[in-house]
Amino acid sequence: MLSITFLIGRLPLTGGNYSILEIANRLLRRGFDVKIVTTGAKVWYYDHNKVPIIYPKEPKVLKYLLSPLSFKYKMIKEFAGFDYYYALSHLLGIDFDFAKRVMEIIPQSDLLIVNEFKTALWGFLAKWQGKVKRLAFFPQLLVPMSVLYSSDPRWYLSYFLPHDYYFALSNIDAKLAKPLLRSSTRVFVTGVGVDSKLFRVLKSYDKREKNVIMTILRSEKIKNSELAIRTLNSLAEKINFSAIIVDHGVLNTLKDKIKFKYISYSHPTYEEMVKLYNEASVFLITSRLESYSLTTVEAMSCGTPVVTTDNIGMRAYVINRENALVSKHHDEKELLSLVLEVLSNPRLALRLVENGIKTAKANDWDNVIERWIDVLKQIEVDI
């Protein structure tokens, strides 16, 4: 069996990091020798992790100086590894390079999987030093997200490094990445999945309260949170409804623009998200661009009809009017019309629910991990 190391910049709670932990743990259970190397953030959100996580040694002086601030800044309690340096670099406006220290903790491995521009460079250096035999790039971002929407040109340069393999989320991801990759880089579609044992139907659609709209607000411009607010404001002029807002740090800046009833939840756990999906009669997503849009699959898996913008990533599994309704123009009038259509047409809503559940099952982790194992078997032959 291959020895595999995931080299991740930091491990705070994100959809991408949760996927990395899920993949690593499932591969470990299937007999692979798996480790994770990261420079910071405790994995408090994945309590069933069995994969060894290797951190660099924490700077004792900085840890001692910053610890008292944890009473005011709760995130400090989640610090690990070099997070204390990251905090200092943020205050000073300096981008520290940890390459030398990271090299010291990367174990000898058959395959090193990296996920962003810093780890891509560190991975290249690790291979050059002979610590790893093969290098794979798994950014979990579509090229437009990492290159066009990023202010850091290092994302663009990271695709040109001599990776042996590129792991794509979907055929769309593979097609967009190929022009930037070296001709010698082999491209595999490995993907990510949804945990259908966790994200499941707790309350059948016909038992839910009517006219409950769920949406997620994020600060990144490409998430287009203001479009969600405008759409729901327009909906409030047509019907009575209540909204479930999952807030990731942006609600305070948009609060004055909201003209509808809502309940907000800040950074809910995955278990809490399952309950929220099961309270909704429509899940609304308004992103300009998504790499895969896992929240869409999560909502489907919970039996919630989805109304979404055409954000490219969802094209990997969404069929318009079969398992979701799609707005191609990113326009609140069109989104409003689609939300009203779901709410007023029970037959359509149930078709979206049934086909959405089927879509989620097809993209369940049990199926996705088989693709990963098939790819790893091919790599094992290379080595």
What would the keywords be for this entry?
383 residues; alpha/beta; Rossmann fold; 2 domains; seven-stranded parallel sheet; six-stranded parallel sheet; 13 strands; 17% strand; globular
What does it look like?
Helix 9 (225-236) links the parallel strand 8 (212-218) and strand 9 (242-248). The longest helix has 18 residues, at 365-382. The termini are close together. It is globular and about 65 Å long. With 383 residues, the chain is of the alpha/beta class. It folds into 2 domains: 3-56 and 98-193 and 365-382, Rossmann fold (3-Layer(aba) Sandwich); 205-362, Glycogen Phosphorylase B (Rossmann fold). It has a 7-stranded parallel β-sheet, with helices on both faces. Helices cover 39% and strands 17% of the residues. It has helices at residues 15-29, 60-66, 83-92, 99-105, 117-128, 143-148, 154-158, 171-177, 225-236, 251-254, 270-277, 294-301, 332-344, 346-362, 365-382; strands at residues 3-8, 33-38, 53-54, 109-114, 132-137, 165-168, 186-189, 212-218, 242-248, 262-266, 282-285, 306-309, 325-327. It comes from Sulfolobus acidocaldarius (strain ATCC 33909 / DSM 639 / JCM 8929 / NBRC 15157 / NCIMB 11770). Keywords: Transferase. One of its GO terms (molecular function) is glycosyltransferase activity. Residues 208-358 form the Glycosyl transferase family domain. Pfam families: Glycos_transf_1.
